[in-house]
Amino acid sequence: MLSSFEKNKLLFMGKEFETNAYGMCRVVEYKRASEVFVEFEHPVCIVKTSLGSLKKGAVANPMKPSVYGKGFMGVGKYSSLNKREYGLWSSMLRRVLHHRNDSSYKDVSIQQDWYDFQIFAEWCNNNVFLNSKDEKGEKYQLDKDILGRHSRSYSSETCCFVPQEINTLVLSNKYRRGSNPIGVVYCKRDNKYIATIRDGSTTRVPKNLGYFDNPIGAFNAYKEAKEDHIKVVANKWKGRIDEKVYQALMNWEVSLDD
Q1: Is the dihedral of CA 83, 84, 87, 92 positive or negative?
Q2: HEC letters along 130-156
Q3: Can you tell me whether residue 196 is helix, strand or coil?
Q4: Dihedral sign, Cα of residue 187, residue 220, residue 238, residue 92
Q5: Given CA atoms 23, 29, 31, 35 in this order, what sign does their dihedral have?
Q6: Which H or E run includes 224?
Q7: For residues 147 and 248, is the Cβ–Cβ distance under 8 A?
Q8: CA triplet 86, 92, 93: central angle to 5 degrees?
Q9: Can you state the percent helix, strand and coil of the chain, rounding each to 5?
């Protein structure tokens, strides 16, 4: 006479079940009602579940893209309960894949294996500055522009964690500022070009660096002031940011292409 375990094993082994959102899966191993292994084919993945969840269709394929069309949870120890890592990952995917009318992200890409949350989360946890905080108690932000200045890519080589002050320090706003060089505005009333800089002061009004007859003269004034300011900020955070970030800022050169 067969035991209940043997009956269930005979009954469910090889049987296919429809899931609520991930298509069909097939039982490939039955150990007990609380430990059933099923295989998905699109994409291929074997998942541990329970018989109760299987009957309800409440089984997910972690390899199937489910976040902004490309991101997937992957197989591993990290989940959406890892709120810091998941928040960074989903925000990155949203900016790149769901930017709509934000043209500043139209040519930005993501390292291919970072669509797998497990790989991205592991990279985060190998970074000592993941949970660092600034003077206001705000956690450092994920930056792709300092180490990978011309790459336009989120990747393990270009990304780092920096305080907000540094994260916004080298933004060019190239897609929003118009045809003038960075740091330069045209004054129609005076027919002059004005060099301005935001130097971290409490006022939101940019500092005026002077009036110039042409945009290049104004840009050169901005370039000198901006590079000096970047060095000041870099030295302020020295020892509290990655050494590679510090060196990149100390050697930063503002160009007309910014």
Answers
A1: negative
A2: CCCECCCCCECEEECCCCCCCCCEECC
A3: strand
A4: positive
A5: negative
A6: helix 215-236
A7: yes
A8: 90
A9: 30, 20, 45
Structure tokens that stand for 199 in this block = 């130097």
Beta strands in the chain (DSSP E): 16-18, 24-32, 35-41, 44-49, 109-110, 141-143, 153-154, 160-162, 184-187, 192-197, 207-212
State the burial class of residue 241 (Cβ atoms within 10 Å of its Cβ: 0-12, 13-18, 19+). buried
- How far apart are alpha carbons 40 and 22 in whole angstroms? 8
Q: Helices (H), strands (E): how many in the chain?
A: 7, 11
Tokens standing for residue 5: 């375990």
Report the alpha-carbon distance of residue 61 to residue 253 in Å, rounded.
Answer: 47
Instruction: Give the helix/strand (H/E) hosting 93.
Output: helix 83-97
- As given in the structure block, the two tokens for residue 233 are 């900020």
Beta bridge partners of 49: 36
Amino acid, single-letter form, for residue 138: E
Q: How far is CA 52 from CA 11, 23, 29, 59, 185, in A?
A: 15, 17, 15, 10, 65
For the packed helices 215-236 and 243-250, what is the interaxial angle rounded to 10 degrees?
A: 150
| pLDDT tens-digit series, residues 131-175 | 999 999 999 999 999 998 888 899 999 999 999 999 999 877 665
In tens, the pLDDT along 35-86 reads 999 999 989 999 999 999 999 999 999 999 999 999 999 999 999 999 999 9
